[in-house]
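Appendix B: complex inputs.
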Amino acid sequence: MNTVTNISVQKIWSILGEVCDPEVPVLSVIDLGIIREVKVTTANEAALVEVVITPTYSGCPAMDVIRMNIRMELLQHDYKNVQITTVLSPAWTTDWMTEAGKEKLKAYGIAPPNIKQQVCNTHLFAEDEAVQCPHCNSYNTRRISEFGSTACKSLHQCNDCQEPFDYFKCH
Amino acid sequence: MTKDILYNYTMHLADNALILAQRNSEWCGHGPVLEQDIAITNISLDLIGQARSLYQYAAELINAPSPSIGGGRGEATEDSLAYLRDVRQYKNCLLVEQPNGDWAQTILRQFFFSTYQYLLYQQLQKSTDDTLAAIAEKSLKEVTYHVRWSSEWVVRLGDGTPESHGRLENALEELWMYTGELFAPATYEAEAVTAGFGVEVSALKAAWEQKVNEIFGEATLPDAAAGGREGIYMQTGGKEGVHSEQLGYILAELQYMQRAYPGAEW
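Resulting structure:
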């Protein structure tokens, strides 16, 4: 039986590394930066694993699935007493994505967020700096649409290799 | 007492987001071009997300013991609040329930409302109520993107062709009378300010008008309140549950499944 003393927070983190984002399946929930905290406490003399998560966007339809997948993955490792808590503040930013995650994204054909965090402002016709084509590495790209296939992405096209691609937009 | 005010205030914010999201979603599959069809429905998705956070909070409030809020349907959930209330219980402002009209009218409605929401959430993220503050902080990042997108479209249409300019002017005629309500506090908004967690909406008006006129200038439109619109009678009532005839039709579509098949899930 799992007790507070023999549950390792580190072990929980490594299990969470196996839970993927259903919409971008190359990314784990840790790569995405949506796991904020893992806590192990005691509730009614049983060990309780609490996972604190935050959504990328308020309306992200993947969040319900992610919550369920976290529960299932932990259950498979015999952690039955699990609580998943959602927090909204501080709000998620692309800056929380891991470097490993950014590399996986690029290999998958999605342009990762710029290393320099792009913050959305209300300036007319402003665009993110230096969006790099994930296929040919050119910076000679243009935005086709401010919105894309999921809430967190916009649609771009490379002027050199002509390939269209998704990009994790400023947030 | 404070909890009743907090509940009403939260429901008002939630209803605004849900009804505008529902309106925008009517464009799904009908947008002028594919990219903008995706844009307007993505904005719907952001708004539905914001509405969900707010309804979840309101459900928590209503489920906690409190004799005065009422409810009468047992355990409230985000779904029961969205699907099982009738017109008079909805507290959204009149602007968000107005018909989509053409693309210009949809754009102008979004621009007016996003600009308002941007100013509102900037203040609300400093609310003494931690949950409202967190929802506002989270939503503000999304709303900023909506303000930029809708501003650009106002400029594009106003400074575009005589046809697009004319359509935007028509949209302004249609919608201007519903903008006053945004800054006229409902009873629970005034009480929320007194209680310390609400935002004084009347204080947002000057900044809103300045932003609107700045974008209108870029769009070669006259000042919003000029051109025969000075002192025009502003429609109010939505925030107190007195709606235009539009809301009933919206709810009929929104709630049809839950009314016909109570508890249906997929």
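The two ends of chain A are 42 Å apart (CA to CA).
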